[in-house]
Amino acid sequence: MNLTWKDFLLTTGARWANGVAADFGDPAGELAAAGTTTTIIAPLAHLGLLAVHGSDAPAFLHNQLTSDVKHLPPNAAQHSAWCSAKGRMLASFLTFRTADSFLLQLAADLAPAIAQRLQMFVLRSQVVVADRSADYVLLGLAGAQCRAALAASGLPTPEAALSTLASAAGLVICLAPERYEVVVDLAAAPALWSQLAAHARPVGTPVWQWLDIRAGVPLITRRTSEEFVPQMADFERLGGVSFHKGCYPGQEVVARTQYLGKVKRHLYRVHAATAIDIGQAIFARDAPDRPCGTIANAAPAPTGGYEALAVIQENCALSGALALAAADGPRVELVAGD
Fold it and tell me: Is residue 294 scored above 80 in pLDDT?
């Protein structure tokens, strides 16, 4: 998080906690707004950006990531992952392009280490990997008046999910109908925030994290790095895994898991009345000796309590008797999709 951007947000009423803007003074009201058609704007300080550029960048990323980077169009984004040799996700990305580079959006707490580790694999390729998290600001916009807010701020409005459009004011990514991200240079971010906030209610980062949970889009963080193969986190459903491209780290494990049908753990949306934390274990009440799942992402829920995305052993999830942290811990319930 760039301190200049943080200082600006503090002047607008943001309250800071755990490295993000926790809220703008009304956490319950902000969460409630996200559950309606109200248009909201959120600072996405929990995310970082890596830039990968050079003449060999497309081939390099294609040979490292799980997605088909070579065929990523200029005005499109795609989910992707970088895996260990054992097929476990080191990081998850939203990958998109600028005029001269690829940008990899990932958890901010992983950005420095992943940038350094990726650079080690460059060898003689004409590629440079750089952590650009301090140079850009990421904003989230959701709600019924997103398009009007973007247009009033001089930003383009891409139509299709995972399409992008760039302008002098910033790059806009359509995540889904009525849900967008904006990538803007740090120097221009305060003015753009003020323009967008005239048409949208400012909310804390946890509100956006809940929207990601509702959308079923997991984010690998430092606490879950190397915990899951992509299929456990539903990355093939998100289009983040290509089964037709050549080799990449962990490809044999990922392909074998897919074609032999050996995925016994899957991604579920869950709810608990008490706080949920990333990396916490989930237990089946009738099998107390070992955990059957792991919390991937969590956030407060508009209806009360917390919601999370969790990777859970299928037979235990279907039993309906789940608990947090221990077999006799707080009850965890599956949430049906919206």
Answer: yes
